[in-house]
Amino acid sequence: MIQFDTPRGAYPVTRMRRMRRDDFSRRLMRETVLTPDDLIWPIFVLEGKGQREAVPSMPGVERLSIDLLVEAAREAQRLGIPAMALFPVIPMEAKSLDAREAYNPDGLAQRAVRAIKNAVPELGIITDVALDPFTTHGQDGLIDDAGYVLNDETVDVLVRQAISHAEAGADIVAPSDMMDGRIGAIRAALEAAGHIHTRILAYSAKYASSYYGPFRDAVGSAANLGSGNKYTYQMDPANAEESIHEVALDLAEGADMVMIKPGMPYLDIVRRVKDQFGVPTCVYHVSGEYAMLKAASQNGWLNEKAVVLEAMISMKRAGADAILTYYAPYVARWLAE
Ligand code: PBG
């Protein structure tokens, strides 16, 4: 027999539905709000002029040459999106085993930063600090003869890359490589070079996720990586405690913000990190998450606007202060409607 708190047939004392009945009271008790201020727009940059390429596994996302990227930056500014994150698509002939193109002062990322800061100086620019677009094998670092990604040798290159981004005018450098000690090394080098205002967004809890597939297509590292994987440096999806350890280290080394990546499958990590540390916490709604929602929407199986806004509010509710999402311009437009 089911036991009821109130005798059968008596009235419920608390009717949760009273507050849900009307729009005004639903609005009054709404705990989480989403605004364009919460968004970071990740965008792929190409060589050339007037170049615009679709990414097949991410319908609606394009790789843009710098001149068109500047137009997108103006659009971000108009939409009230605070920041953009740049991901360069490096031509095969510029890739190498030592990834030296990563710190070329006139490299694609560095030129893109200068062009945007010149045209739209108020827009925050975030650069990706990692070597995968620049290595012939698609790993995020330098490798030894056995293919193992070398830690300290890679950190030396990441430092040079981060400094070249700061010199180009990047507001935030975002190491997404998962080498040990890179935040401390980059922070020390930035300070020594006088870049005391350059913020570090540390990809602290970055999981070895299969949701990155479309991104690797977009930057062209998928073919290079082949059947390789990133298990020796990115985190095991089975682990949660380890994310706390990672975040603690990155904060101790001088990170200003931390990132959890991917987003929706890792909301438990977002909540734990936010509760434990209370620091600016970002979450990356990654390429595979975009692709899933886009594909289902294009098939008419999900209502795109409704489901994307729900995904966004879920990440905020979990504790994220900012969300990197390929849906950023869509979301900003929907919020303005
Ligand atoms: C690599 C990098 C990746 C992403 C951002 N930076 C892919 C990877 O680690 O292989 C993935 C982003 C996405 O899937 O949207 N440094």
TrEMBL record:
Keyword Metal-binding: yes
Entry's EC annotation: 4.2.1.24
Gene Ontology cellular-component annotations: cytosol
GO molecular function per UniProt: porphobilinogen synthase activity; zinc ion binding
UniProt-annotated catalytic positions: 206 (schiff-base intermediate with substrate), 261 (schiff-base intermediate with substrate)
Keywords linked to the UniProt accession: Heme biosynthesis, Lyase, Magnesium, Metal-binding, Porphyrin biosynthesis
CDD domains associated with the record: ALAD_PBGS_aspartate_rich
InterPro entries: ALAD (IPR001731), ALAD_AS (IPR030656), Aldolase_TIM (IPR013785)
Binding-site positions, Mg(2+): 246
Catalytic reaction list: 2 5-aminolevulinate = porphobilinogen + 2 H2O + H(+)
GO biological process: protoporphyrinogen IX biosynthetic process
Pathway participation: Porphyrin-containing compound metabolism; protoporphyrin-IX biosynthesis; coproporphyrinogen-III from 5-aminolevulinate: step 1/4
SMART domains for the chain: ALAD
PROSITE patterns recorded: D_ALA_DEHYDRATASE
Keyword Metal-binding: yes
Gene3D superfamilies, alphabetized: Aldolase class I (3.20.20.70)
Family annotation (NCBIfam families): PRK09283.1
Subunit-structure text: Homooctamer.
Family indicated by similarity: Belongs to the ALAD family.
Name the record gives this protein: Delta-aminolevulinic acid dehydratase
Organism: Caldichromatium japonicum
Lineage: Bacteria, Pseudomonadati, Pseudomonadota, Gammaproteobacteria, Chromatiales
